[in-house]
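Sequence and fold:
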Amino acid sequence: MSSDAQHLKILEQRLLWLSHWMIHHANHIRPKVDGIKIGGHQASSASMVSIMTALYFSALRPEDRVAVKPHASPVFHAIQYLMGHQTREKMEAFRGLGGVQSYPSRTKDVDDVDFSTGSVGLGVAITAFASLVQDYVAAKDWGADLPLGRMVALVGDAELDEGNVYEALQEGWKNELRNCWWIIDYNRQSLDGIVREGLFGRVEKIFEAFGWDVVRVKYGALQRAAFEEPGGAALRDWIDACPNADYSALTYMGGAVWRKRLMDDLGDQGDVTALIERRSDAELAALMENLGGNCVETMAETFASIDHDRPTCFLAYTIKGWGTPIAGHKDNHGGLMTKAQMAEWQRHMNVPEGQEWEPFATVADVEGLRAFLDRVPFFAEGARRYSDATLPAPALSVATDREISTQAAFGKILDDLAKGDSALAERIVTTSPDVTGTTSLGPWVNRRKLFARAAREDTFIEHRIPSTAKWEFTPQGQHVELGIAEMNLFLLLGAAGLSHSLFGKRMIPIGTVYDPFIHRGLDALNYACYQDARFLIVGTPSGVTLAPEGGAHQSIGTPLTGMAQDGLASFEPAFADELAVIMGWAFDYLQRDGEGDPDERTWLRDETGGSVYLRLTTKPLEQPGKRHDDAFRQGAIDGAYWLRPPGPNCEVVIAYQGAVADEAIAAAGIIAEACRDVGVLAVTSADRLNAGWTAAQRERAHGNGAARSHVEQLLAPLPRHCALVTVIDGHPATLGWLGAVAGHRTISHGVEHFGQTGTVGDLYRHFRIDREALAASVSGLTKGARCA
């Protein structure tokens, strides 16, 4: 074994111990406040430790990026701790407040996490999209100096049950994926049992069908050497034929049982018997458990053998719980070593009492190991969390049409940006899951073209066939066309939205999708926001306003999703000028990276920045004319403004959001004949109104009695007897809380049930979000005949 291989072996054993001790400390030593199991996945960490040692200390370079499988988080943090990038205090607080997180987190952990993981399958797939983003950046003049790295996923074998993985494989093939490694921890055990026999033979064929190289890493150095001995071929055949469940059980039972089983199956064959008998029980167990993925030397050699940029899947055979007393047991996924087992294992690992947290305990030549670590390429440049300059947003033009929908206005704003030469427009990348034309991205794409590493002409243009879509693919293109898979949309937005941090090159990603299918990709949307990726997502068309399409295409709950999703500011403008103001603000908001102190005007944490969701519509509305006053502009950003200010004796306020603006305005006109000083509140973001209100309440609870949110200031002048009627083409709970702000009686109109086909008027009347229904609610809420 070479000197470097010896150092890798020492590091492997150190990481095995440190990761398991951290979990043991959290579960058996640290006081339990809640009386519940802390957990930590010792067995899953053990099966990955050799792979991760070889990867981080031999194969990786600073430009490479890694998504660590969630249950190998303890090994990742042990690596960072050993390298001095993680503190003992946080390791001791594993899974506690302020401690090392259960699963690697870009936003919660202090060490160098490339991709957050947790929801299985998503961390795998985002590496493919990060590689596509890397190619996109490198193809541009402003990114030509980018060194190309490998995007690596450490994959639990059970993660390949997730459908999004196969959606990503298909998209990768279409976009000529390269520089992507997926390293599968094939321990053949999941939470509930043993993986089905023969499954991975089929999985390999899927990878090969999509153009991946598949490298099977089945045997470790000890096994390969044994196979060269007389009788070795018979032993290899036996290993290949042994069922997964049997192999796991034999591993757990140990060397004596291995011997009996092998002698029963292979004994009395001369050479094979001699091969077995030459080894003690401990040596025989070490041989049988020396699968390729549990051999750090083999993994390092395998990684070093890859000399191309083709996407590569490594199928690394491992033992779950390898090297520990719980190795191979079918219950070890959620299991933990007992105190007695840990004490015995500590003696086995030669870790002295009192030195459990020492990074180099048990290391004979500490200076030699430190010298080796100083030469490890991956850590040579320190932390790899980059940034890029803020791109100023140019003034956005407002559509001058007398009537226009917000979706059409969105398309015009982007088209105007495409005509210009601003630095911001140069960094915009748009993407859509096969709905580019029907979400008004067409003009932008016609001007800025589609991205591909190799140019491809539009056949329709070449043959002079008339078409509104000019689909020219070029390395300079600024649109990435996706297939119909919303998970891929949000994974690409997530990867592109981290470009400034991963590659030091800022992008402004804009995605469009039919609004109801926000929920189809919701897990990936949440994942992207959890990583603090920055992007603009446009859900359009939305609501039952998309009347002819029927209930399957009519969104109901997306406004509530916009309110509930952390890291995502949600807006639903009604008019083109509102949209222009919001988009101008959004382009700046996407790039902010402040400390999180709230704005005392709204109590929103706007300086931290985040992503933005626009819920738009194809319904044309008559526009209100030119508006330039600060109250309108700031109100549109803060979440609401008075379209029709209430008088001093206001009896009714109609508050609306989105496409039903015309119905709310018309209803105000109907009731104004009988009610005094009617107000109309234009809500552009129930999300921001609600967030500011709850934040102000928390501030008051902390002693600042003067804290008042934007919505509290808007509603403060209203008399207590004033009634609120709210309306949205979406779930009524979106605005139903407004009455609680100042104690006003409220009736909320919206859509609570699946829609159907019809005209807009038909469906508005059916769901009672039309002007007559609003006026009728006013009559029911107010006293006397004057509002009847």
